[in-house]
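Query structure, 458 tokens:
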């Protein structure tokens, strides 16, 4: 059978069509959404977990491809004194719980989709990302199939993709990222895979409710990317198998909820760790170590921050600092790899600000008694640069389309933020805004498209 599969930057979800109606499949005991996170007791153990999830017919080829990594995985299992069948890799909420329990002992990845299409990756890094995505897809497919009639398997999927995976690298980056998704999907057991731009998928769900044709600007502000599309929609368009002529303009960039969380971390939390303080020579502290600590969607920054040279730099800054106690907190973050936890705290604060004017964030996992007050004003000031980039993407899509939208359709988990909504509304005050289901509209559109191209065959 076929599904719509949103392999998202923040969350993943899978949809099916039942009696012409869209339905999300549960991916955990309590939710139809799975957090896009992975935690391994050792990074080398990821390929071992992938191998176990492959069908017997595919294992030999994979063993040859990952011969070196699998040898390292066997060594890591012995070093960690793990039993042969003991779980060593976790996905979703289990991954978050494992990371919070052992932040400095394992390998944690939040939003692996954000890394896809990155330029300058080594062969071993590419292999690692393939394995991370494969393992997550194996897990998600298995969870989804548990909620289908007995014996029914998912063999076909339409997978969402952003217009641009990365801000640099152009179409080459897009092709590289899509290739990783295709390889991972095949290894996870999807026999037939198609891709669809996420903003177009989000718009299709809205289109199903339209009674007349309209030109719609779809703004999809997700966890890792923002995508904009200008699309002709309505009953005169939705039945077509080929929608190419209906898509008037597209833009997209790796700017989303993760970037807002990082920006808020820098503005609200990093001053408590020494950002903005002075050294003995009256010069300000360099920004880079603080940025690297929370730039969780930047491979190079994370590698630099975890290095011995970063630790030595922070130790030298402590000696030269007028407020060394603050810099000591940054050293703890480096030593215990707490950057993801800081960004997670920022995400929680961002969500709380959707209903409250201010919130106090407990940072006692860095040092007991340290708290940060975050106001709506501080948040809006912190995210001014990301919001400007979202505005530029909207303008770019409209310039390409050379059209004036009748409606702006806003979706994506990050678009829940009142600050995001106010920004979008202020840019086109005379155009009505329709707010979609922030989490499932993309999955619904992907599922509708899967129904169209794969028909109703199992």
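Result returned for the query:
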């Amino acid at each position: 059978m076929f599904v719509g599969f949103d392999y998202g930057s923040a969350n993943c979800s899978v949809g099916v069509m039942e009696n012409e109606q869209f339905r999300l499949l549960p991916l955990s005991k309590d939710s139809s959404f799975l957090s896009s996170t992975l935690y391994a007791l050792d990074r080398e153990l990821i390929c071992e977990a992938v191998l176990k999830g492959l069908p017997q017919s595919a294992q030999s080829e994979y063993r040859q491809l990952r011969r070196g990594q699998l040898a390292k995985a066997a060594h890591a299992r012995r070093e960690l004194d793990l039993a042969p069948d003991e779980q060593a890799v976790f996905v979703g909420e289990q991954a978050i719980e494992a990371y919070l329990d052992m932040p400095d002992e394992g390998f944690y990845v939040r939003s692996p989709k954000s890394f896809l299409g990155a330029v300058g990756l080594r062969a071993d890094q590419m292999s690692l990302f393939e394995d991370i995505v494969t393992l997550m897809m194996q897990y998600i497919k298995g969870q989804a199939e548990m909620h289908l009639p007995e014996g029914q398997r998912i063999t076909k999927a339409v997978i969402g993709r952003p217009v641009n995976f990365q801000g640099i690298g152009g179409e080459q980056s897009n092709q590289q990222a899509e290739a990783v998704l295709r390889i991972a999907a095949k290894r996870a057991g999807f026999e037939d895979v198609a891709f669809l731009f996420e903003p177009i998928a989000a718009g299709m769900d809205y289109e199903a409710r339209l009674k007349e044709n309209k030109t719609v600007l779809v703004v999809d502000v997700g966890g890792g990317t923002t995508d904009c599309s200008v699309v002709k929609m309505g009953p005169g368009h939705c039945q077509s198998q080929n929608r190419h002529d209906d898509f008037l303009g597209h833009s997209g960039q790796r700017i989303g909820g993760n970037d807002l969380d990082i920006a808020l971390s820098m503005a609200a939390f990093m001053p408590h760790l020494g950002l903005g303080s002075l050294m003995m020579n009256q010069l300000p502290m360099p920004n880079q170590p603080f940025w690297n600590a929370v730039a969780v969607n930047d491979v190079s920054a994370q590698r630099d921050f975890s290095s011995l040279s970063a630790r030595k730099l922070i130790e030298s800054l402590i000696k030269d600092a007028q407020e060394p106690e603050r810099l000591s907190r940054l050293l703890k973050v480096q030593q215990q790899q707490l950057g993801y936890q800081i960004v997670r705290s920022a995400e929680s604060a961002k969500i709380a600000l959707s209903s409250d004017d201010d919130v106090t964030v407990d940072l006692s996992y860095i040092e007991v008694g340290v708290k940060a007050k975050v106001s709506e004003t501080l948040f809006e000031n912190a995210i001014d640069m990301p919001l400007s980039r979202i505005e530029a993407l909207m303008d770019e899509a409209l310039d390409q389309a050379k059209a004036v939208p009748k409606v702006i359709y806003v979706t994506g988990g990050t678009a829940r933020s009142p600050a995001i909504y106010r920004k979008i509304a202020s840019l086109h005050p005379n155009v009505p805004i329709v707010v979609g289901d922030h989490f499932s509209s993309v999955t619904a559109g992907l599922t509708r498209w899967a129904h169209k191209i794969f028909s109703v065959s199992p």
